Amino acid sequence: MEELIYQITPLDNTTLPPYALLETADPSRELIDQYLEKGESYVAISNGSIIGVVVFIPLEAHNIEIKNIAVADQFQGKGVGKALLRCIEEVCKKKGFHKMVIGTGNSSIGQLALYQQLGFEIERIEKNFFLDNYSAPIFENKIQCKHMLILEKNLNI
C-alpha cells in the first residue's frame, strides 16, 4: 500500500473554500459561509488537490470551536483527520487558547470515536439541535441525527 503524502497549510484568501468537502460534514451552505467568515481554515493538500479541511472560530475565554472537519471519502481512515486536528491543536496552543470545543451528531459514530481517541471528552448534549436547525432530516449509519454531542479538550497551557 502506497503511503499518502500531503501537507497541511492555512487556506488563503485567494483560494475558494472547498465547499463540496465542507458540505459533507455540514449540509448548510449558509452556516458554512457564516463560520468561514469568522474563522480560520486549514487544508490538507495531496498532489495539488484539497483532500481535507478544518475550520475553527475563536470563542470567549480563550477557547476555540471547531466548526467543520471533513476528509474526502477516498482518504478517510488514513490519518488525515487526526493530522488536521493535531495541527489545529498546535496552532491554538501557540495562539494562547486554552480549550478546544467540537460538536458532532449522535449518529456520527466514527467521528465520536476519533475525537475521544484524541483526548476530547463529552461535555454535554444539545437535544434536538439538528431537528431545530436543519430543514431536512440527516441520517448517518442508519440513525437519524437529532442531538449534538459537545466535546472539549483542555490544551494545558
Automatic annotation (TrEMBL):
<feature type="domain" description="N-acetyltransferase">
    <location>
        <begin position="1"/>
        <end position="156"/>
    </location>
</feature>
<dbReference type="InterPro" id="IPR016181">
    <property type="entry name" value="Acyl_CoA_acyltransferase"/>
</dbReference>
<dbReference type="InterPro" id="IPR000182">
    <property type="entry name" value="GNAT_dom"/>
</dbReference>
<dbReference type="Pfam" id="PF00583">
    <property type="entry name" value="Acetyltransf_1"/>
</dbReference>
<keyword id="KW-0808">Transferase</keyword>
<protein>
    <submittedName>
        <fullName>GNAT family N-acetyltransferase</fullName>
    </submittedName>
</protein>
<dbReference type="GO" id="GO:0008080">
    <property type="term" value="F:N-acetyltransferase activity"/>
</dbReference>
<dbReference type="InterPro" id="IPR050769">
    <property type="entry name" value="NAT_camello-type"/>
</dbReference>
